[in-house]
Amino acid sequence: MTAIAEAPIAAPVATDVTFRVRRFLPEIDSEPHWEEYTVGLFPTDRVLTALEKIKGEIDGTLSFRRSCGHGICGSDAMRINGRNRLACKTLVKDLDISKPITVEAIKGLPLEKDLIVDMDPFFEAYRAVMPFLITDGHEPSRERLQSAEDRARFDDGTKCILCACCTTSCPVYWTDGQYFGPAAIVAANRFIFDSRDSGAEQRLEILNEKEGVWRCRTTFNCTDACPRGIEVTKAIQEVKRALIFRR
Amino acid sequence: MSVHGANRLGTNSLLDINVFGRRAGIAAAEYANNHDLVELPADPQGQTIALVEQLRSSTGGERVATLRRAMQETMDLNAQVYRTEATLKQALNDVQELKRRFANVSIQDKGVRYNTDLMEAIELGFLLDLAELVVVGALERKESRGGHAREDYPNRDDVNFMRHTMAYRRSEADGSASVRLDYKPVSVTRYQPMERKY
After folding, report:
1. B137 near B161, Cβ under 8 Å?
2. What is the pLDDT of residue A74?
């Protein structure tokens, strides 16, 4: 212990923060509408904490998905102040609390209830690119080895948590009911450039179709939206280049 | 049998998932192949519907979030890694009191579509059951081992406690429920259990 007398640390004080949430209860509401809630929060609190407080203390009907609460399960993607983010990774101190913080469901997928959308179309696109290891020949008797350089080649895509922040920030995805969307292309990229995989040709054929990579208009919304810092637009460009330069 | 010994470190659940998922799937398929379908009771869905409808129609004054927070606080304070008989008894009292209060829980979302309010209420009921099992099991394990550090019994006791705790929820005639404990021997195979010296 040092002998320096320390001033007592003041207990942190919660500040009232107002949230403007786009609500839609399908059994009651004919149209979505905005509602405001004010809750006391600390600067280090997450938006998810605010939603849990609103649900627990003010209105139990507020509906949203969440699971792990620390940015790895990908359940609580939502549009916060107009930007796709994970509610569990967005801190109050990083938002302007002088005006209401808007929270709404991610766009481009059918609205189910409040902040919950139907994720089926998103996962259908994901499945369509065959996001699993495809190999030919005999099954080896030991691990499929890979050099550190080969592993690094597709590392970025392995960070994906399938939260849909990228896909539902894409203006082409919003207006086009067919486009696979950024997340599915990232998943394809992760295997196309994996030296152990031999399904690249099949995946490239799928992504060369009219719903595939050529719909991308390089707006970079997806890269900005990714809570995992994946260079999503670059991953899409890599697939385009592979299509152009393949033998 | 466990695959982690007495302390499954955080994020290591993948091993459990792989090992026991595979074993459960194989065993379930084998069972299904060798057994005829059982006769369904007259009202197989009745108990579940009653549980859901009780929560949906309840007008009691307790809120899920309040009880859940109280449960989290007592479990965090009194049934964490370092525990004693006194703290565990406190946790048991608190959890049992919360179970009584849970009977008066009501929810605001009365809908039938994606009702997270209802889901959280159902989960809380099960979590309270589980919390009780954890505490009752920990009270009876009068030793320290793995993630269970009894400050009143700091040593490992292989003579009495080299065994798995099996907890059963027993319904009483008056409608209440209690916890019955039993034990199962540890089957030692390739790796010899030994005291941690680091």
Report:
1. no
2. 97
